[in-house]
């Protein structure tokens, strides 16, 4: 420890204190690691890695680093510029009470928000149980066979329903009918999506769907104005023509009205926001999709299923399409990768907390208030509509005058047109509110009298007649202690970043600092409805504009759209911009998208969504994209070339020398360059894609800019473009831009943008550059130290990697039969989350340590990897059996290791405590290795039935495999 020599106030005021908290290694450790890597300074190492042609040497023009205290004070000031009125706007977003026990122990708890997508099933059993609760809740309420573990929002879920219907319908029609009473944002997103896929939309009154020649229809129930119609006859007519019926719905209403599955729906979508997730100015919330069993193999998004582990116990895993973009590429069912896991977990816990009776009570109470208000207004001569759940469609009024009056009284009503408004009541509605709302119309309410005198406004023919959520999980944890302990039990089964580094290549699992997270749940950010009037959202405008300015400076682009709510949505938005730009230039025939074979699977999946034809280009033996192949294909398709999608630094973890030349080639042939910005953590402060010739990128704020992964979402995938593409960014809801919406809300998942804002503000220009440099250093340190044990597959200039390294385990497999997966599972016995397995190269592990991991944590990981290499050596030497060894049987559960009988050819101690340090802190996986084949053959995606063997998932066996 150096002695404390600072004495003046100036010395003691350390403005960049946060930087030292965010970056793992301290100066002395950095010096040591630089020695291992073979460079004198971070700058020298950076020069050796980053090609001179792209390096940007000028410091970022960003303000200096702020302390946590100052940054929080500043963003508090920004938040205060938002005005929180009580929004009864509805239109898909409703007031809700987030149970405090869920707020603190899920949303604000790193055990949940720092987890990754559950690819490693054995360390993800807790969140997968929460997600299977979500699936069961959605399945039950909608009356469908199966539901997925969340989609991005209701509008994109409807778009996915449109394409799922296309894949599934018997009808060969190319027309999709959309009822004209779906939410406006749903219609806008459907238009955007249909256009790219060449689907023709037919929009009209729901009843017209009966006679339309279409492959499918989308109805909304209750509709956007709150009306509940009986669609059974429409559904029957559509089915008779071989068409598919998709329905957008409201989960709370479904506790009282007939499940769509009972009257003919084939696909049901919606948003679970009102199950305890705040407005957040539009997001994030968990969209959902449920469908008939027959469609499960082409359903988009992640699906949690029940399988068995090596010990024969039930265990959860991602089933079916898990990573299908990486396998099916442009033939994938959708480009959805990141979804909304954290929000789905919140909604599922809300359902666990309230149970079916509690939810029904909330729904009934909401409906009673709506009925009473309707009766009061009816008496005053106001027309409010009938057959509703929570929403009054008020017509024949002076809307402007009413909105003004409402705002004075503290309310936002829904703006429909000059003579009508909407009022949606919800869980948070009180008696006083109903009185105040009635007053706006000049009438008083005697609540008790009206309550007694007023019948329900639900159509009796559509009263719900089926039970839901009968599983014990929804009927047990209703006291706060019970729920608290249930959530803790689940969290304890998982490995998240609050316990260990998660060195997943291409995922950038860096620190999600607490100070960054704090503003997210402030009411000024959380309680703003996405359609709140602009004069109430000045704080959000300042936040979003400020973040755009920061990202423009960091990337070298000119404009940013925050609408995309995942990286893949950002890709879609970027490609739409390219297409619209080319159309405006009279080049609309351009339709070829070149994509290197090393690209992330979402790239080809997104290209297909805008109607481009994917042409794959090769990589050379060093992992670089093959510039000759790109040139040849750009020439071959010169008159059709629309774009090249390239990831930089490459998914192989190297800074390719030729990127500037590649951009030139594409431009010469009339194409645009799309740079996948998921690897931006290797570039911030070091190089700017917008300056080296790229035209557009998406960024993953949930990678480089510290938004936590939440176990598989939320995410923000802003689309950053050069000025010529700026007019073609997605428009605002109701806006007049050339390109339609890609997400339901104008600013996507706005309420988590403070996280990235805080990160950039607290790091400052120098801190951001240093973070990138240490990310490069950490990756190279791991690669160098592991080199004698596991060769790194690809290196770039001067034998260095970028911010991640691919360890090649294929020779080990050939020599010993031990696979990369065996090593990944053995790491669990050491308490680690595995690196990225078999992407982008099969049989490898890709390690991305990020700048936030300390030398101590890196060494702990390296020690584990070396120990595992020793075990592999023992297999090679015959000291461990080729089949019965700790790798093949990893991970080991406490039950296995402590069982009276131990039949393995290696000692128990080696199984459980391969390093002495594990005796202090040991993570016990709750299940042994999970059987993937069994899970895909026996698809079962609801809560595990309690009781007899006949109820077990096997009963749902079906013979075929994918
Ligand atoms: C993570 C990633 C994506 C997709 O981002 P999502 O937010 O999961 O949709 C795209 N490309 C690359 C290279 C990535 O690593």
TrEMBL record:
Keyword Repeat: no
EC primary class: oxidoreductase
Keywords: Oxidoreductase, Pyridoxal phosphate
Catalytic activity: N(6)-[(R)-lipoyl]-L-lysyl-[glycine-cleavage complex H protein] + glycine + H(+) = N(6)-[(R)-S(8)-aminomethyldihydrolipoyl]-L-lysyl-[glycine-cleavage complex H protein] + CO2
Residue ranges occupied by any Glycine dehydrogenase C-terminal domain in the UniProt entry: 771-892
Ranges of residues in domain Glycine cleavage system P-protein N-terminal: 20-441, 447-731
Cross-referenced SUPFAM superfamilies: PLP-dependent transferases (SSF53383)
A GO CC term assigned to this protein in UniProt: glycine cleavage complex
PANTHER family: GLYCINE DEHYDROGENASE (DECARBOXYLATING), MITOCHONDRIAL, GLYCINE DEHYDROGENASE, DECARBOXYLATING
Name the UniProt record assigns to this protein: Glycine dehydrogenase (decarboxylating)
InterPro entries noted in UniProt: GcvP, GDC-P_C, GDC-P_N, GDC_P, PyrdxlP-dep_Trfase, PyrdxlP-dep_Trfase_major, PyrdxlP-dep_Trfase_small
Native species: Luteimonas deserti
């Amino acid at each position: 420890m150096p002695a404390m020599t600072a004495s003046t106030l100036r010395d003691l005021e350390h403005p960049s204190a946060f930087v030292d908290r965010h970056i793992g290694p301290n100066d002395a450790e950095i010096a040591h690691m630089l020695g291992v890597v073979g460079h004198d300074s971070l700058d020298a190492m950076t020069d050796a890695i980053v090609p001179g042609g792209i390096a940007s040497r000028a410091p970022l023009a960003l303000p200096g680093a702020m302390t946590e205290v100052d940054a929080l004070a500043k963003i508090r000031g920004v938040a205060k510029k938002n005005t929180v009125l009580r929004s009864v706007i509805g239109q898909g977003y409703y007031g809700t009470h987030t149970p405090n026990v869920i707020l603190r122990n899920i949303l604000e708890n790193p055990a949940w928000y720092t987890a990754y997508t559950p690819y490693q099933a054995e360390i993800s059993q807790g969140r997968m149980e929460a997600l299977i609760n979500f699936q069961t809740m959605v399945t039950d309420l909608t009356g469908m066979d199966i539901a997925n573990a969340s989609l991005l929002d209701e509008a994109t879920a409807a778009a996915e329903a449109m394409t799922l219907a296309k894949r599934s319908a018997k009808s060969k029609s190319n027309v999709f009918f959309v009822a004209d009473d779906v939410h406006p944002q749903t219609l806008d997103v459907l238009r955007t999506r249909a256009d790219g896929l060449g689907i023709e939309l037919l929009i009209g009154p729901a009843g017209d769907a009966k006679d339309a020649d279409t492959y499918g229809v989308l109805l909304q129930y209750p509709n956007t104005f709150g009306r509940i119609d009986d669609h059974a006859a429409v559904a029957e007519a559509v089915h008779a023509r071989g068409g598919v019926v998709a329905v957008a719905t409201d989960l709370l209403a479904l506790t009282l009205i007939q499940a769509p599955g009972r009257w003919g729906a084939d696909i049901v979508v919606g948003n679970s926001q009102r199950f305890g997730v705040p407005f957040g100015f539009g997001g994030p919330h968990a969209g959902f999709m449920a469908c008939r069993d027959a469609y499960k193999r082409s359903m988009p998004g992640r699906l949690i299923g029940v399988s068995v582990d090596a010990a024969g116990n039930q265990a959860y895993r991602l089933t079916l399409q898990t990573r299908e973009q990486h396998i099916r590429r442009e033939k994938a069912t959708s480009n959805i990768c990141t979804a909304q896991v954290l929000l789905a977990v919140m909604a599922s816990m809300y359902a666990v907390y309230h149970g079916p009776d509690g939810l029904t009570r909330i729904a009934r109470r909401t409906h009673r208030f709506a009925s009473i208000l309707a009766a009061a207004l009816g008496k005053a001569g106001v027309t409010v509509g009938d057959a509703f759940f929570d929403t009054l469609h008020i017509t024949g009024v002076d809307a402007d005058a009413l909105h003004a009056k409402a705002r004075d009284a503290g309310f936002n009503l829904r703006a429909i047109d000059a003579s009508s408004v909407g009022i949606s009541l919800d869980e948070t509605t009180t008696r006083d509110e109903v009185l105040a709302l009635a007053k706006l119309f000049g009438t008083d309410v005697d609540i008790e009298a009206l309550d007694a005198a007023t019948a329900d406004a639900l159509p009796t023919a559509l009263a719900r007649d089926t039970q839901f959520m009968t599983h014990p999980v929804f009927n047990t944890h209703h006291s706060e202690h019970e729920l608290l302990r249930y959530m803790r039990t689940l969290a304890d089964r998982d490995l998240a970043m609050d316990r260990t580094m998660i060195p997943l290549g291409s995922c950038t699992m860096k620190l999600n600092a607490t100070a960054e997270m704090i503003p997210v749940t402030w009411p000024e950010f959380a309680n703003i409805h996405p359609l709140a009037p602009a004069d109430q959202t000045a704080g959000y405008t300042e936040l979003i504009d400020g973040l755009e300015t920061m990202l423009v400076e960091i990337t070298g682009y000119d404009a940013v759209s925050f609408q995309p709510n995942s990286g893949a949505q950002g890709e879609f938005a970027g490609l739409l911009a390219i297409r619209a730009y080319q159309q405006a230039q009279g080049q609309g025939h351009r339709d070829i998208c070149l994509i290197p074979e090393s690209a992330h699977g979402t790239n080809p999946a997104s290209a297909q969504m805008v109607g481009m034809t994917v042409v794959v280009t090769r990589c050379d033996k060093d992992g670089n994209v093959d510039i000759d192949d790109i040139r040849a294909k750009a020439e071959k398709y010169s008159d059709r070339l629309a774009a090249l999608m390239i990831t930089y630094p490459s998914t192989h973890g190297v800074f390719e020398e030729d990127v500037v030349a590649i951009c030139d080639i594409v431009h010469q042939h009339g194409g645009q360059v799309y740079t996948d910005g998921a690897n931006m953590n290797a570039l911030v402060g070091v190089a700017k894609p917008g300056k080296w010739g790229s035209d557009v990128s998406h960024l993953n704020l949930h990678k480089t800019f510290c938004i936590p992964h939440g176990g598989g979402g939320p995410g923000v995938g802003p689309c950053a473009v050069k000025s010529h593409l700026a007019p073609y960014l997605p428009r605002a809801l109701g806006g007049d831009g050339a390109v339609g919406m890609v997400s339901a809300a104008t600013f996507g998942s706005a309420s988590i943008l403070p996280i990235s804002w805080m990160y950039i503000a607290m790091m400052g220009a120098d801190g951001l550059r240093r973070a990138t440099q240490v990310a490069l250093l950490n990756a190279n340190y791991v690669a160098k130290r592991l080199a004698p044990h596991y060769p790194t597959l690809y290196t770039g200039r001067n034998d260095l990697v970028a911010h991640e390294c691919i360890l090649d385990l294929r020779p080990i497999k050939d020599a010993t039969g031990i696979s990369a997966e065996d090593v990944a599972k053995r790491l669990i016995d050491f308490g680690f989350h595995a690196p990225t397995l078999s992407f982008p190269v099969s049989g490898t592990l890709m390690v991305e340590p990020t700048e936030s991991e300390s030398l101590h944590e890196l060494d702990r990981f390296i020690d584990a990897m070396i120990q595992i290499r020793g075990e592999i050596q023992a297999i090679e030497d015959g000291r461990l059996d080729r089949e019965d060894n700790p790798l093949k049987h990893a991970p080991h559960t406490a039950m296995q290791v402590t069982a009276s009988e131990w039949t393995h050819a290696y000692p128990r101690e080696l199984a459980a405590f391969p390093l002495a340090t594990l005796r202090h802190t040991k993570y016990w996986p709750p299940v042994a290795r999970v059987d993937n084949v069994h899970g895909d053959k026996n698809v079962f995606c609801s809560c595990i039935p309690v009781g007899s063997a006949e109820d077990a998932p096997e009963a749902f066996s079906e013979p075929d495999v994918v």
